[in-house]
Amino acid sequence: xxxxxxxxxxxxxxxxxxxxxxxxxxxxESATDHRIGKMIAMAEERGIAVRRRGREDLARLSNTSHxxxxxxxxxxxxxxELEELLSNIQISEETLFFLLLDGIQxxxxxxxxxxxxxxxxVQGVIIPKDRACGxxxxxxxxxxxxxxxxxxxxxxxxxxxxxxxxxxxxxxxxLAGESRTSIYQADFKGNLVLxxxxxxxxxxxxVRKQCDHLVAIPHYxxxxxxxxxxxxxxxxxxxxxxRQG
Length: 245
Prior knowledge:
Layout: E1 4-7, H1 9-17, E2 22-28, H2 34-45, E3 49-53, H3 55-62, E4 70-74, H4 82-92, E5 97-102, H5 107-120, E6 124-128, H6 137-142, E7 152-155, H7 158-167, E8 171-175, E9 192-197, H8 205-209, E10 213-215, H9 228-244
Parallel strand pairs: 2-3, 5-6, 5-9, 6-7, 8-9, 8-10
Antiparallel strand pairs: 1-4, 2-4
Helix pairs in contact: 1-2, 5-9
């Protein structure tokens, strides 16, 4: 089969809405969900072949039983170039707002962070090529299709990337539990890149040195730290609240 496989209602719907090339739409024979009917119409409008398959066939195609009755064969995911992204935003004269992830390895966390970033109005999510999860079908499912709506940039060197973003006018805020500055005390209203570290070690030392400020989420009891995607969501929406205010 050509390309990659996307599965699930939201990821397939967003892929069909976007510009990504799609080859075949596979639909469960017994599917009655009206949303799938709409996707069939979208596929036919784009000239994409629609195939009816049994539930087990779809499970084999998608390598999961959680396909929700719909599977799409698409071209491989294409990352956005950093300079192209910066150029497009600067032409629009919008205030910059990026999320930079330093070593997220769990595809569920990456997908959840991309989904949250899209909802918070982030203009681009930046991830490293090495020692981190890339965009996979599992990530696409966890993001509920958000990878089709917010640009994802993959870079070889996060330190150089942060230097470039700071040249473009961004202030880099790193999320670090030991910081004495709360996210509620930080000023996120300007050109911003929010840096979140990996699940185990947090932000790496060299990346941390490039952060202009380190901020923390206050804790009021319970365990010592939050899951990476939850912490990212809290910080992203505090930034979104300030920026909308």
